[in-house]
Amino acid sequence: MKKTISLIVILFASYVSYSQMQRNNNFQQRGMMDRDQIKKMLEMRNESLQNKNNQDNPLSFLNLSDEQKKKFKEINSRHNISSKSLKKEVMRKKLEMQLEKIEDNIDINSVNKLIDDMSDLVAELKKSEFKKTLELSSILDDEQKIRFQRLMIRKRQMEKSRLINRNLRI
Domain for residue 3, yes or no? Predict the structure, then answer.
């Protein structure tokens, strides 16, 4: 009798421990974490964001004077205002293109016109971006221009990687 009871207790204890292990394993597989792990991740994320904001801020990286910072912000805001309307127009043309694709009888002439209009708008955006880059570089000294060029190269690389990642998800 004692052997049977002890066997039942041992089996019950092993079942409970096995169930606990399975539960923890399921949490890990689902990506569930306990509070301490979540707090630690949040702290690390906040630290990395603070460091990123301090290091990757173009104004701090370029060591701009107060006057240069003011001109930098002025040029950027002027460009953002002008490019915002162009970007909205491109988006509107894309939506019109989607509507044309949905229709049963697709008018090829209107689709071609939409494509041409979108091409013109994108060209205007690129010209505006180039003009902004020239204006920004005109207020910099030689050392700052080199740093600015590095920033622009890094920006292009990030845009390319974003496009590649977006295309991989599709």
Answer: no
